[in-house]
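Instructor's aside before we start: the two examples that follow are unrelated to each other. I chose them only because their records fit on one page, so don't look for a connection. First example below.
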Amino acid sequence: MRIVVLGGGESGFGAAYLAKKKGMEVFLSDKGEIRESYKQLLMENGIDFEEGMHTEDKILNADWIVKSPGIPKKADIIFKANQKGIRLSSEIEFASEFTNAKIIAITGSNGKTTTTSLIYHILKNDGLNVGLGGNIGKSFAKQVADESFDYYVLEVSSFQLDDIQNFRPYISMLLNLSQDHLDQYNYNYEEYALAKFRIAENQENDNFFIYNKDDEMSMNLLEKLAIKAKMLPFTMKEKVSEGAYATEDRIFVKLQEEFSMKIKDLSLVGKHNVANSLAASIAGKILKISNESIRNSLMTFQAVEHRLEIVADIEGVKYINDSKATNVNACYFALESMKTPTVWIVGGVDKGNDYAEIEDLVKKKVKAIICLGVDNEKIIEFFRDKKEFIYDTSSMEEAVKISKSISEKGDTVLLSPCCASFDLFKNYEDRGKKFKEEVLKNEQVIIEN
């Protein structure tokens, strides 16, 4: 079988490596430049590749094409592959065909990375033999090639789900839906939402689908979709007889036996993280992990980098890095969790944002807005009449310098940009790291664990 891999990043190399290990003929093609470390690995493993081009003759003779989620569906080479009827899959689809491990797959517009990491922590903390992959950590395919895990916890994006055929998780999870990446889905919210629901489309009645009962779009679509898996809801608004729910001060999971703990004992803060903890706890109970072990994991989990990450406390001012909040909905959750007057750093590449969604929260929680981007006009225009203090900056150094000068003891400085990072930074990780560097520069600080 001839396998062609499009894209030479983490998932692309992993897929090529797995194919080679399975004795297939492999060719990897990347239209851009391949990072030196991956080139070295391709050469070390005898994998034929090209960069800076897609040679059609070498690609369109494939039996199976494995596509990086970063390559747009409308790309010319994808159109031609589809015309020829070549099977086109994502790395998660390809790798899942070569493992019998139980897969726990998590998708949603926000909270994927945190919840995926939390579930991995719950399983690992209980002593299970588990790998972490998908949109996070090491390539799933590379792990399938080299490891023999009994479980995989995978963060899965809509772009990866667009290219599945047989992918069937033991447990699938849809955390929430909000308008994101609509440029890739014909500016149609339902089309994007249905891509997320593909996580459950191949599941059977011996599988589980965990969903958010409070999410309006999810509930609308569930009325139309025929999901075969056992469906388990989580909710912040009502009690359920099976699934999970929260009251004002406790979380409850009802599945065979009951699990319960105080919200104040959760290591993660904010309402959205209570919801994430509910979803993760259901997965733990499905896998028959003890109440004591789940409770311990929920108390000891450390938040993921760039997602409501506490950077430091400097002279009574708390600095929080939420660089991963690249859309308005993610920023909503961050602002909602603020308990003190907030200096808010926002801006970047706007993805058609509607700031009206967070207007009330900004009025209530934010004492000053620091815009950080090449073009901040849209944000300034929207909040001009709503906030007295708005600053226009074009570098992280300037943004942090101003935040330090205007914040007072008891305040929080929050980087939660609402926008993509590509105007000033390589990616959201680069943006978050630069924020942390500037915050910690020349400071004697208390760094919280």
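Example two begins here.
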Amino acid sequence: MNVTELRGDGAHAHEYRWALPSVLLGDPREGRRVRRSTRDWIVDTLLFLVACGFTFLSLAELESQHQPEPLVAIEQVMGALACVAVWARRRWPVALAIVTALLASYLELVGGASVVALFTVAVHRPFKISGPVTLFNLLTLAPYILLRPQTDLDRMETGALGGAIVLTVFAWGIVIRARRQLVWSLRERADSAAEEAKRLERERIAREMHDVLAHRISMLSLHAGALEFRPDAPPGEIARAAGAIRTNAHLALQDLREVIGVLRHSAPDGDDVVPDRPQPTLADLPALVEECRQAGMDVRFEPAVGDAPEGLGRNLYRIVQEALTNARKHAGGVPVTVSVEGERGKGLSVEVRNPLWARPGARIPGAGAGLIGLTERAELAGGHLEHGATPEGEFVVSAWLPWPVEATQEVDA
């Protein structure tokens, strides 16, 4: 099972997210077997050898106690079985720790496997489980001290040594678990940051497609409407309208190809790189206004600012473009006034207003997402945007964007 499978979606995503650390620590999920990696095999082999080493070291202690032969045989069999059982520590860590601790309350040679099992529980289980298991291990020291004959150490020293071993192993396992959870958390944060960056980039490209294509398609609709309502127009006007339709359709396809090319672009090393397509700035506003005039719109342009940083001018251009597109959609044929003013340190303001009344004709449908996108664009740039009808019977779109004194380049929102 990999990380991607556990992330999930919808209602199960939160559950999977909390279950992930345990899986990374090698626990089975829903009864399914966990495949050991190469590292897991190495670790399990080392811990098996550690358990065997403790068992062989305890043989000398067992021989010095002069126990009956049947008890010695039982000790050796149970010690060997406990060492073999260490290989099951990933599947049943808690059960193994409890059983080995219970056996180690009297049997000498099970102690090594009991230490390994306790370490496994401390690493693979939360404190609410590993804490009681550790306490149980400490309690099992009492019958061992009382029932087993002591040689080199008295009962007090034996209890202190056993307690120190249990607590040290438990603390070591807790530290390793905390480190692994920290690594997992950092990895999750990095993945979340990458996903968020991709989401923001998709939103940016979506805004770009909307701004560009809505403008071009509204121009197509405007020229097509003129041909529809004036079929008796002079051939020269019909030819100009048809030429404008062809030009705007060509530009719309070109813009769409550029945006799709951005989506498909990938660096040779496999890392996704999304280059910026050529963007308009404040200096391109006169060309936009002139294009609208050639399409038959009555646009009055009142610029009161010379130049502005590239990012700031780009955002303002998009606001004016979308406002003119909305005017063509919902109030075709009415005069539109575009006012731009501002200076460094005080900000840049733009206002697009037009009467609410419109000439008869088919209106271009719209979803209302353009003004929402403009509001988001202005807020991301640190400014604000307002729109709506006025008591004077006009529809106004007004925006203000910050223009820092020391800034020469602004980040495009």
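The CA atoms of residues 120 and 410 lie 54 Å apart.
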